[in-house]
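Bumping my old thread because nobody answered last time. Still need a sequence for this structure:
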């Protein structure tokens, strides 16, 4: 990796140049955990991302917003290489984590998905017990002992704010949990891998308001230890949870900046219109 990603745009450039201003807003003062550079993505002939450049700050929450079909989910799918399972999907450009390519052919995809976990829109528990849902991955992949596995299950469920609700019924089927609990179980399953980055794709859209609030609180807490990226259609949720917001439109990343700046003083007309509810 070159070190051009780590630095702010050169101060010798004209500071009123809008590209310079946007560059500063996009590159926050936090170290970038992930750097996305000029990324294009194609589903067969359909281009879904067009020249996306974005830094994801470490141990911060980054919210991806924008109207339906603008490429938010596609970007998450790129970051943990889900597209790799589909031969007609392809990406160009670069995405780096800690300076190393996520997209190169040499990347160990199992390890990558361990380091970059993903929580989907609706809960996707495995048809097995609560305990096994969490234990399955780390026990097999890290060859954990029985006790270490049990400890990891407790640690993960505690961190996902579910332990007190399920500790007396760990052998029950996960499918018997409420939908909100199932979503926290899926978060616990992701945490059990001890990832560095967690991607959430509209994590509360299938939940009732109370369950949604619990997930929001969880996201806010997780950034103490993890880098979080989440997709949301809910502007209030973006304001409550995100430190940084990136606005997408028709596959392009139009504008990114601190949540305060993006909501109080968006620079681009399309961002203003979207925030104001004029379209989308
Ligand atoms: N499997 C696919 N095959 C072809 N085109 C796809 C596929 N999945 C998504 N697309 C297209 O790619 C574009 C981006 O889709 P994506 O799901 O990333 O948008 P999004 O912003 O997450 O939308 P939403 O907010 O509705 O979830 C859209 O035009 C969509 O129709």
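Sorry it took so long. Here it is:
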């Amino acid at each position: 990796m070159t070190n051009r990603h780590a630095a702010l745009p050169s101060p010798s450039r004209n500071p009123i140049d809008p590209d310079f201003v946007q560059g500063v807003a996009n590159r926050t003062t936090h170290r970038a955990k992930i750097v996305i550079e000029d990324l294009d993505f194609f589903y067969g002939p359909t281009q879904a991302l067009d020249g996306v450049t974005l830094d994801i700050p470490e141990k911060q929450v980054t919210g991806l917003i924008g109207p339906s079909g603008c490429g938010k989910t596609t970007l998450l799918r790129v970051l943990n290489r889900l597209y790799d399972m589909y031969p007609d999907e392809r990406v160009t450009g670069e995405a780096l984590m800690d300076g190393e390519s996520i997209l190169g052919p040499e990347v160990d995809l199992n390890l990558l998905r361990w380091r970059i976990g993903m929580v989907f829109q609706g809960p996707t528990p495995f048809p097995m017990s609560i305990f096994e849902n969490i234990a399955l991955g780390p026990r097999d992949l890290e060859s954990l002992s029985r006790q270490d596995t049990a400890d990891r299950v407790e640690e993960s469920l505690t961190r996902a704010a579910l332990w007190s609700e399920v500790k007396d019924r760990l052998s029950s089927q996960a499918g018997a949990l409420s939908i909100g609990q199932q979503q926290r179980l899926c978060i616990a399953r992701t945490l059990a891998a001890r990832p560095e980055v967690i991607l959430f794709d509209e994590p509360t859209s299938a939940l009732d308001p109370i369950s949604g609030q619990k997930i929001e609180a969880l996201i806010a807490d997780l950034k103490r230890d993890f880098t979080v990226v989440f997709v949301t259609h809910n502007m209030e949720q973006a304001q409550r949870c995100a430190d940084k917001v990136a606005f997408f439109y028709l596959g392009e990343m139009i504008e990114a900046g601190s949540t305060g700046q993006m909501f109080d003083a968006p620079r681009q007309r399309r961002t203003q219109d979207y925030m104001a509810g004029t379209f989308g």
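The beta strands are 32-43, 46-57, 61-65, 89-97, 100-101, 116-119, 197-201, 227-231, 244-249, 252-258. Let me know if any region looks off to you.
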